[in-house]
Amino acid sequence: MTEHEYNVEIEWLNTRRGKMYSPELENTEENITNEIEVAPPTQFSGGIPYTWTPEHLFTSAVSSCLMTTFLAISEYSRLEFVSYKCKSKGILKKIDGRFAMSEIQLYPEVVVNDEALVEKAEKVLWKAKKACLISNSVNSEITMHPTITIQSYASEPSN
Q: What InterPro entries would the database entry show (predicted)?
């Protein structure tokens, strides 16, 4: 595999708020820049509510990498599933006098339509966790608490 680059640009707007975007994600034909406003979290001085924070973006990078890796491995493994979603939680702690994201907790939920696929779905999830390049690039502990359920079909009422 060759080296890949991912470019992001950050621009200060006002107070402690800025915007970030990637020139690689711009669609000039439709005037789309995919900007995201960023600010410190409200737990810190000058934090701005209802705005994406570096801590949220860090947590979402791990969570979204798990999902995209799961999707790729599912396709390769021919795992058919009904749905995937994942809640995640980033834990910020002071370690040796410095703040750090000490842990990212992942709670993926996969729904399959056949009990025979439960074990395969769980194996694919654990493979995805192991292969996730973002998780493999950070010092935070990454914990995963998967749930695999079988889609139940409501029976049609008989007339």
A: KH_dom-like_a/b (IPR015946), OsmC/Ohr_fam (IPR003718), OsmC/Ohrsf (IPR036102), OsmC_Ohr_Peroxiredoxin (IPR052707)
Identity of the amino acid at 59: T
- Residue-wise pLDDT tens digits, 43-84: 999 999 999 999 999 999 999 999 999 999 999 999 999 999
Task: Read off the pLDDT band of 145 (50, 70, 90).
Answer: very high
Residue by residue, DSSP assigns 52-116 as B-HHHHHHHHHHHHHHHHHHHHHHHHT---SEEEEEEEEEEEEETTEEEEEEEEEEEEEEESSGG
C-beta of residue 124 within 8 angstroms of C-beta of residue 130 = no
Instruction: Round to whole Å and give the CA distance between 157 and 154.
Output: 9
Task: Give ∠ CA 78-123-115 in degrees, rounded to 5.
Answer: 70
pTM over 0.85: yes
Which two structure tokens, joined as six digits, stand for 30?
């439709």
Answer yes or no: are the C-beta atoms of 121 and 83 closer than 8 Å. no
Q: Which two tokens stand for residue 137?
A: 């690039």
- How far apart (Å, rounded) are the C-alpha atoms in residues 142 and 63? 10
